[in-house]
Every structure is written in C-alpha cells, then in structure tokens.
Amino acid sequence: MTAADLLTVGFFDQWARALLSRVEALPTASAAAPSEVVLYSIAKLAAVCDVDVATVRRWLKTGKTGKKGQPITLQAYYFTSEARIPWPALLAYERGEAFDLATLPAPLLAAPETVVPAVPPRPEQPTPDNAAPDNAAPLRPAS
Q1: I want to staple 92 with a disulfide (CB 3.0 to 4.6 A). Which of 7, 32, 41, 97 is the partner?
Q2: Does 104 fall in a domain?
C-alpha cells in the first residue's frame, strides 16, 4: 500500500458531494402524496412484481402463512369483479403481516401509462426544411 492509495480528506469530500448530489436528484420513493393510495389491477401488479397473473390471484384467494402462523391473504378493494390492490397491502403481505384496508385513506386508480404517438405531429407552418418545391404537382386522391 502506498500513500497514493490512501483516501484523502479532499478526495473524500469530492466523492461525498458527488454522491449526495446524485441522491438528491433521485425522484421520491412514492410518486403519490403520502395521503394518497394508488391502486393496481391484478395484471398491472403482476407486471410490476414480475410474476404471473395467476400468482397474484393465488395471493388474493389462498394466501400464505403469516409471521405468527396465521393464514393471511393479499387484501384488495373490489369495485367491480376485478380486484384493485393498494401497494401498502402488498408490502404487508410480503412481510407476513395482517393488513386492514380501513387504515388507508381514500384510494386512487393508478395513472394510465402514457402512449407515445407513432407518427410525429404535422407542422402547422411550412418551414424551409419541409416546404414543397415550386414545381410540385398538387396532391390528388387516388381513384
């Protein structure tokens, strides 16, 4: 080991500041406010957890043995025939703890995923880049 291998105060300060700036730039742990609960459909939760849809249905119906040996199931709201699962209920289920849906504030549905249009929007004004040449024939519908 040489003196060049030792961590100096200046190098440590520079490293810590860079690390702190990266941590501060990260988004918050939850996109929703703490008083809001986002609900996931069975298919969306299966995609988030990277499991099969049948596995999530088994968590809802059969469940597993909890920490204290009691059987627990994944708690969900049922607005229609489809279940909506709050994230805190999934966390409690994975920890093997019983969960009460009454402890949650009013739920919200998960925001739909944004769809990017395949074709870019057409420009309103012709620009020199996309202007038609002077000798171009007018467009006619195909007959």
Answers
A1: 97
A2: yes
